[in-house]
């Protein structure tokens, strides 16, 4: 029972209030540092550590705002001066704040160390060669290949009488597959799944791939014509 017992309980309200004032002021000031770091480092996310005589300060930021400001003293222990979690212990905060000016000086020295670093970087770059000629030649060859595969697709459609189908052949050890929809080629793929699409509904092949495979396409057409001969059907031959 506590009847008749009278104890004085010290209020922590004033200490906590002062602690919160200090943390708010540091958050605002360190927020400026965070925004400047984000500009300097070219990203919305990052962190940087600054060394002082008393320890190390690590500032982590996100979208130009402080995520946390942590002080690690050389004597041990660490204090999150600014944090999204609980506020710091007043004694630990006081210890850290005695080194806060040194942290700001370390940051300023860090920024000054970057000044002039790009002064002698040359921006008179060499002219960039146009790919127009190569692309034009690539498109010419691929266009001709598509014309021929469309003819092949049309002959297969006429013979098979179904709307979808494929024709495959091995040329120089590689699997060639012509897929059609009715009398139009959907794609011509070389090398099986994950191979090179010489004809497709999407992006064109690279110029080196076209150069490598264009000659073999003649053999693929020859294989198709042999297939037609074997069918002994009234299908027109395709020639390049």
Low-confidence stretches: none
Discrete helix count = 5
Structural class: alpha+beta
Q: Strand arrangement, largest sheet?
A: 1-2-3-4
Which band does the percent of strand residues land in? 15-25%
Termini gap: 108 Å
Mean pLDDT: 90
| Global shape | elongated
Give the proportion of residues in helices.
40-55%
How is the main sheet built? Answer: 4 strands, antiparallel
Q: What is the string of helix and strand elements?
A: HEEEEHHHEEEEH
Quick structural gist:
The protein is α+β, with helices and mostly antiparallel strands and 240 residues long.
Summarize the structure in words:
It is a single chain. With 240 residues, the protein is of the alpha+beta class. Helix content is 43%, strand content 23%. It contains 5 helices and 8 strands. It has helices spanning 13-41, 90-97, 100-112, 132-160, 207-231, and strands at residues 45-51, 55-62, 65-73, 78-82, 164-171, 174-181, 184-190, 196-199. The strands form 2 sheets. The chain has a 4-stranded antiparallel β-sheet. Helix 4 packs parallel to helix 5. The radius of gyration is 37 Å and the shape is elongated. The model has no long low-confidence stretch (mean pLDDT 90).
């Amino acid at each position: 029972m506590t009847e008749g017992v009278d104890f004085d309980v010290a209020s922590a309200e004033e200490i906590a209030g002062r602690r919160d004032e200090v943390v708010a002021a540091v958050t605002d000031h360190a927020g400026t540092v965070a925004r400047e770091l984000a500009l300097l480092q070219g990203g919305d996310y990052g962190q940087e550590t600054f060394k002082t005589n008393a320890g190390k300060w690590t500032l982590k930021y996100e979208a130009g705002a402080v995520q946390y400001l942590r002080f690690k003293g050389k004597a041990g222990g660490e204090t999150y001066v600014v944090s999204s979690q609980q506020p710091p212990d007043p004694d630990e905060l006081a210890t850290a704040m005695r080194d806060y000016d040194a942290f700001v000086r370390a940051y300023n020295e860090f920024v000054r160390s970057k000044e002039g670093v790009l002064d002698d970087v040359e921006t008179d770059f060499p002219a960039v060669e146009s790919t127009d000629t190569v692309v034009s030649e690539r498109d010419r060859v691929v266009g001709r290949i598509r014309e021929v595969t469309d003819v092949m697709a049309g002959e297969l459609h006429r013979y098979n009488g179904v709307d979808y189908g494929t024709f495959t052949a091995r040329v120089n050890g590689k699997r060639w597959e012509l897929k059609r929809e009715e009398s139009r080629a959907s794609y011509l793929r070389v090398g099986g799944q994950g191979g090179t699409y010489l004809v497709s509904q999407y992006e064109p092949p690279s110029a080196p791939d076209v150069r490598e495979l264009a000659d073999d396409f003649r053999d693929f057409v020859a294989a198709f014509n042999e297939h037609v001969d074997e069918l002994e059907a009234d299908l027109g031959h395709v020639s390049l």
